Amino acid sequence: MQLLVDLGERSYPIFIESDAYRSENLSPLVENKKILVVTNETIAPLYLDQLTRQLDSAQVVDTLILPDGEQFKTMDSLNEILTKALSMKLNRKSLMVAIGGGVVGDMTGFAASCYQRGIDFIQVPTTLLSQVDSSVGGKTGVNHALGKNMIGAFHQPKAVCIDTNTLNTLPEREYAAGMAEVIKYGLIYDADFFGWLEENIEQLKARDEDALKKAIYRSCEIKAAIVKEDEKETTGKRAWLNLGHTFGHAIETLSGYGRFLHGEAVAIGTLMALKLSEELSLIDLSVRERTAKLFHTLGLPNTIKGISSVSEFVDVMLLDKKNVNAKIRLILLSKLGEAVLTEDYDGDKMQSVIADFVD
Ligand code: NAD
Ligand code: GLY
User: Which of 182, 333, 310 has the alpha carbon at shortest distance from 250?
Assistant: First the structure.
């Protein structure tokens, strides 16, 4: 299966196949070029050789293996990638390849965006979350001690190669966290897809290949449509992808990076956003109940009791990048299959939703 992210001269293909990074797909982009492949210590023993074998038409291939973890998504790691690129004497025609989850993809993309003012890169995402979200759309970056993903750039990849076989080695929690992002697409954009996910949740939980490919394809299709409409998040449409993220980022920050995976925090944040949408009479209770049922089937966590006070939670939400004029902008649901970016809501209701979850 193949999709196009249609962005004019910055358009690129997404290959969704069991051998998506085969040389036939990669050769047109890597032929006679110097290639730096970036990955981490977990992915390297699993997939690095397999990938580099497919780069046989390149002029030079070298690799950089970074430590694994969100805590290494830093300026220091970025510097390591850039130092490696300089020591290899990569030039403007050279290319970086990121193989790994969203952490490796975001950092490598950012390094590619600023090396010699921007070189090409390819995403080979290996987590479900990175396959359906972070590898598509060109958001790249690193964390700062004062905030997550605060330093970065928009830089679209030249191709995204989604090898669904890589999911066979993905730990259960990581898989469920990625599935939460798949469910997000149904909630914000496609009620029928949401219904299809409900019907197929057992097959998806069991990683049935056909069901999984369909879920990844539809998720990427929706992401590509949203990115085409609002590439740099200027109209608010792209912000829909952040359903549950403002609450989720606060959960990640307040619980200390590590207790919850990003997708797990977003899943709880999504339930908070749905509850607030409900309190504001935008949707009825059934949407949250149906979503909670899907999350429960996947074994996602559903409590953050005691992580902070309501006021601490609100303070962290105030740091969100979507905010302007010191008001917390939120993505809420206006109906199943449609979201809205708003700062026009009753703040007391938001605080009472936070209290429901943290107290
Ligand atoms: P991750 O990159 O940390 O990967 C999760 C874990 O799974 C890691 O330990 C990784 O080494 C391991 N792993 C990856 N693939 C594997 C495989 N096939 N088999 C076994 N283990 C494997 O986390 P993630 O969930 O992929 O990405 C989260 C990151 O993505 C966050 O930093 C988040 O900010 C970012 N993100 C970016 C965007 C974007 O638009 N750029 C969107 C969403 C999330
Ligand atoms: N994951 C949010 C975005 O790509 O905009």
Answer: 310
254-308 pLDDT, tens per residue? 997 678 998 999 999 999 999 999 999 999 999 999 999 999 999 999 889 999 9
Half-sphere exposure of 208 (CA within 13 A, CB side): 11
The whole-model pTM stands at 0.96
Q: Which amino acid is at 246?
A: T
Q: Is 241 in the pocket of ligand 2 (CB under 6 A)?
A: yes
The catalytic residues are: 117, 139, 181, 223, 233, 238, 242, 245, 249, 262
CA proximity to 30, closest of 63, 54, 7: 54
Ligand nearest to the CA of residue 109, numbered in listed order: 1
How far is the centre of ligand 2, averaged over its atoms, from the C-alpha of 223 (Å)?
8
Q: What residue ranges in the chain does DSSP mark as E strands?
A: 2-5, 12-17, 34-40, 60-66, 95-100, 120-125, 139-144, 147-154, 159-163, 330-335, 338-342
In sequence order, what are the beta bridge partners of 17? 163
Q: Are 157 and 130 in contact (CB under 8 A)?
A: no
Nearest alpha carbon, ligand 1 atom 43: 134
